[in-house]
């Protein structure tokens, strides 16, 4: 079942069964097959005791999965941190803007730690415009040569109201999607935009999917 199919079933209503009554009061976790996470996990098999950076909301499931493989997991919810009002300032026109310099002074700062793998998820689609390029550059600086990064990007078919999800590993080839905070999709990258975003990295591999996400595995 694709994410689109599951959302259609969730919101169509018209059935008073107990299962559907429960769905109206409790968020439903969707499951999607992911070639990207499968390739990411395979890329870890030849490595021992590495450091993994998860840039999504804290996921006990993900932490347990990777620590059971003998790896160390660091977690930093970059998207949530970017909404901190302490990073706002007044621009020359008096409008409130995000201070990217101040944000990077407090976030994605690691002393004496280099990572071998990064789970970027789809944060690039939701981050403030002023942060996207700077965050990808900062990740490049803390990722070891040969390190891998997994990122997702929405296609135009997803629509501007595409919901934000928290991702947790359901199996080595699938992810569970949990509805997250009401962050708004800020942009849609095409393949060329994605290639430009990661132009300082070594290589990119795109994975096709049946829903409205592009999966990209990037090697430093």
How would you explain this protein's 3D organization?
It is a single chain. It contains 9 helices and 11 strands. With 220 residues, the chain is of the alpha/beta class. It has a single domain (35-158, 190-219), classed as Rossmann fold. Strand 2, helix 4 and strand 3 form a beta-alpha-beta unit. It is globular, with a radius of gyration of 18 Å. The relative contact order is 0.18.
Secondary-structure map:
Blueprint: H1 3-11, H2 18-25, E1 30-33, H3 35-44, E2 51-54, H4 60-68, E3 72-75, H5 78-81, E4 88-90, E5 96-98, H6 100-106, E6 115-121, H7 123-126, H8 129-142, E7 143-154, E8 165-171, E9 174-179, H9 191-197, E10 203-207, E11 213-219
Parallel strand pairs: 2-3, 2-6, 6-7
Antiparallel strand pairs: 1-9, 4-5, 7-11, 8-9, 10-11
Overall form: globular
CATH topology: Rossmann fold
CATH superfamily membership, which one?
Answer: Vaccinia Virus protein VP39
CATH class: Alpha Beta
Strand segment count:
11
Unreliable runs: 1-26
The whole-angstrom Rg is: 18 Å
Oligomer: single chain
Helix content: 25-40%
**Biggest β-sheet: strands ordered side by side in the sheet:** 3-2-6-7-11-10
Summed over residues and divided by their number, the pLDDT gives a mean of: 86
| Major sheet | 6 strands, mixed
> What letter string, H or E per element, gives the SSE order?
HHEHEHEHEEHEHHEEEHEE
CATH architecture: 3-Layer(aba) Sandwich
Helical stretch tally? 9
């Amino acid at each position: 079942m694709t994410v689109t199919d599951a959302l259609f079933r969730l919101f169509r209503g018209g059935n008073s069964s107990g299962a559907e009554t429960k769905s109206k009061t409790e968020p439903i976790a969707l499951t999607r097959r992911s070639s990207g996470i499968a390739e990411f996990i395979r890329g870890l098999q030849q490595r021992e005791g590495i450091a993994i950076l998860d840039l999504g909301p804290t996921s006990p499931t993900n932490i347990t999965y990777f620590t059971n493989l003998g790896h160390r997991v660091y977690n930093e919810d970059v998207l949530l941190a970017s909404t901190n009002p302490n990073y706002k300032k007044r621009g020359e026109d008096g409008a409130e803007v995000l201070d990217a310099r101040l944000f990077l002074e407090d976030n994605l700062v690691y002393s004496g730690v280099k990572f071998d793998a990064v789970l970027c998820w789809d944060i690039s689609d939701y981050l403030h415009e002023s942060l996207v390029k700077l965050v990808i550059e900062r990740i490049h600086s803390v990722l070891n040569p040969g390190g891998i990064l997994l990122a997702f990007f929405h296609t135009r078919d997803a629509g501007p109201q595409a919901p934000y999800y928290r991702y947790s590993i359901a199996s080595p080839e699938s992810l569970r999607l949990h509805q997250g905070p009401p962050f708004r999709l800020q942009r849609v990258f095409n393949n060329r935009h994605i290639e430009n975003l990661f132009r300082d990295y070594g290589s990119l591999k795109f994975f096709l999917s049946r829903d409205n996400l592009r999966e990209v595995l990037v090697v430093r």
